[in-house]
Amino acid sequence: MIFAAVHIDPLFSKFVILSCIVIVIGFLLRLLKQPYMIAYIIVGIIVGPYGVGFVSDEELISNLGSLGLVLLLFFIGMEIRLPQLLNNWKVSIIGTLMQVFASLLIIWLLSFYFNWSTSQVVMFGFVISLSSTAVIVKILQERDEINSKAGQYALGILIAQDILIVPMLILLGYLGGHRPDKSELIKQIIGGILIIGMIIFLVRKKEIKLPFQKYIQKDHEMQVFIAFSLCFGFSTISAFFQLSAALGAFIAGILISATRSTEWVHNSLSAFKILFVALFFISIGMIIDLNFLKDNLYTIVTLLIVVFILNSIINISMIRFFCKDWKITLYVSALLSQIGEFSFILAATGYQSGIIKEYSYQITISTIALTLLFSPLWINLTKKVTNQFHVFAHKNKTA
Question: Which residues, at least 6 apart from 189, have a Cβ–Cβ distance to it below 8 Å?
Answer without folding.
Answer: none
